[in-house]
């Protein structure tokens, strides 16, 4: 069977809530967050959900409320027919991009006509590391695999790149200011799906601050200087010294203000063939031009987004200069700055509406959220192509290139 285009018909997301007992979405079960975006796809596009062959969902901490294959269970919870299958995948923070990739490749390869790719994470209800995975919770495995805390990896990257605390704080402040501007100008309006929580409507990202400044961020204590993290900081420092003995001690530079904010949220993307679109009356907004995965040294785990993007661009046969927008997950301020340097990306094309530092990073949902953000902005600008790239734990990363239809 010849390859077919994987068309994006729609992309929706919930607002992102603060990951805390008092967070705006903390009272909503992850399965209900996912069901909400599935409902929204049907309501907005008026198709019969029985036409969907699979629901593929990214979720990182698959335990408790997030266990038992949320992809399938959310479809049932949304009232979709039992014939709709479902799966849940984990590529750490790149899980949502992985879901998009799998959906696109199923369509391109002829395995499916219409698939929903999505992601969810309720970090209020299921905190990061709650699964006590061997990578970080088993001391023997952690040593053997050279586990380091992600903030330590980010600080190492900043040291290797010569990025000062001041440069990191300046980037973080810019993320907040760009996100605040995007909300003022209604740039997220097309994708946002309101969520009803205890009789009130949540329709806005909760974490954005329009008063963030480098000066205010400068007053925050570095994450790995906190006494509570002394043991993990020491273990991470020892691993880094063994890998980079020439660097000497690395001063901690990232803090809660220059790190991705933990968040709750869900997103969904409707992907299918041109024939399925014609049959169901769906109008394509874009196509998945190419995908790419990569992995790097786990000590430098947050740099894999560069190689993943390069692979996707090579497969799309598209030059960097032809990319109008880059949506790069802000897993600490050093990461988008490193990405921009590595690929010589104009800062005015990178995370133009802010990123996870300002808006939050609901782990498994971040990939499809970024895809929707990129698509909305391409349409607003009348531009054509975007790259979405997300790095993750242990060095994994995943990327997609999208092109407006």
Walk me through the topology.
Layout: E1 7-13, E2 17-18, H1 30-45, E3 54-58, H2 70-77, E4 85-89, H3 95-108, E5 114-122, H4 134-137, H5 139-144, H6 150-161, H7 165-184, E6 195-197, E7 200-202, H8 214-217, H9 230-243, E8 263-272, H10 274-280, E9 286-295, H11 304-316, E10 325-328, H12 334-343, H13 356-359, H14 366-381, E11 385-391, E12 396-404
Parallel strand pairs: 3-4, 3-5, 10-11
Antiparallel strand pairs: 1-8, 1-9, 2-8, 5-8, 6-7, 9-12, 11-12
Helix pairs in contact: 1-2, 3-14
Description:
- This protein has helices at residues 30-45, 70-77, 95-108, 134-137, 139-144, 150-161, 165-184, 214-217, 230-243, 274-280, 304-316, 334-343, 356-359, 366-381; strands at residues 7-13, 17-18, 54-58, 85-89, 114-122, 195-197, 200-202, 263-272, 286-295, 325-328, 385-391, 396-404.
- The chain has 405 residues and is of the alpha+beta class.
- The strands form two sheets. Strands 1, 2, 3, 4, 5, 8, 9, 10, 11 and 12 form a ten-stranded mixed beta sheet that branches.
- Strand 11 and strand 12 (396-404) form a beta hairpin.
- It is globular.
Q: Give the low-confidence spans.
A: none
Number of strands: 12
Secondary structure class reads alpha+beta
Q: Separation of termini? A: 23 Å
β-strand amount:
15-25%
Q: Shape from CA axes?
A: globular
Q: Major sheet: size, sense and barrel closure? A: 10 strands, mixed
Helix content: 25-40%
Mean pLDDT value: 97
- Helix tally equals 14
Gyration radius, in Å: 20 Å
Question: What is the element string, with H for helices and E for strands?
Answer: EEHEHEHEHHHHEEHHEHEHEHHHEE
């Amino acid at each position: 069977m010849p390859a077919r285009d994987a068309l994006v018909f729609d992309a929706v997301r919930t607002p992102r809530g603060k990951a805390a007992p008092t967070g705006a979405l903390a009272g909503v079960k992850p399965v209900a967050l996912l069901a909400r975006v599935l409902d929204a796809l049907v309501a907005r596009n008026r198709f019969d959900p029985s036409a969907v062959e699979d629901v593929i969902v990214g979720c990182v901490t698959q335990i408790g409320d997030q266990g038992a294959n949320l992809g399938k269970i959310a479809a049932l919870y949304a009232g979709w027919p039992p014939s709709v299958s479902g799966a849940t995948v984990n590529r750490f923070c790149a899980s949502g991009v992985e879901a998009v990739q799998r959906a696109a490749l199923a369509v391109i390869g002829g395995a499916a006509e219409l698939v929903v790719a999505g992601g969810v994470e309720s970090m209020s209800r299921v905190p990061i590391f709650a699964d006590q995975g061997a990578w970080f919770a088993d001391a023997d495995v952690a040593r053997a695999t050279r586990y380091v805390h992600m903030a330590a990896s980010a600080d190492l990257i900043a040291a290797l790149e010569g990025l000062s605390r001041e440069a990191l704080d300046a980037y973080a402040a810019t993320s907040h200011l760009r996100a605040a501007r995007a909300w003022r100008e209604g740039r997220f309006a097309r994708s946002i799906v309101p969520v009803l929580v205890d009789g009130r409507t949540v329709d806005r990202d909760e974490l954005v601050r329009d008063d963030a400044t480098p000066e205010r961020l400068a007053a925050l204590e570095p994450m790995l200087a906190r006494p509570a993290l002394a043991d993990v900081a020491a273990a991470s420092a020892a691993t880094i010294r063994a890998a980079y003995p020439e660097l000497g001690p690395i001063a901690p530079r990232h803090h809660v203000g220059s790190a991705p904010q933990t968040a709750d949220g869900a997103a969904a993307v409707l992907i299918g063939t041109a024939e399925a679109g014609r049959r169901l009356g769906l109008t394509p907004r874009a196509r998945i031009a190419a995908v790419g995965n990569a992995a790097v040294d786990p000590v430098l785990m947050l740099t894999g987004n560069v190689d993943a993007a390069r692979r996707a661009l090579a497969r799309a046969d598209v030059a960097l200069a032809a990319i109008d927008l880059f949506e790069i997950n802000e897993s600490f301020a050093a990461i988008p700055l490193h990405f921009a340097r590595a690929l010589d990306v104009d800062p005015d094309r990178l995370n133009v509406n802010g990123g996870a530092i300002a808006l939050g990073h609901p782990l498994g949902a971040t990939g499809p959220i970024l895809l929707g953000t990129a698509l909305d902005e391409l349409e607003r600008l009348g531009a054509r192509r975007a790259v979405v790239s997300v790095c993750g734990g242990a060095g994994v990363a995943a990327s997609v290139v999208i092109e407006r239809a």
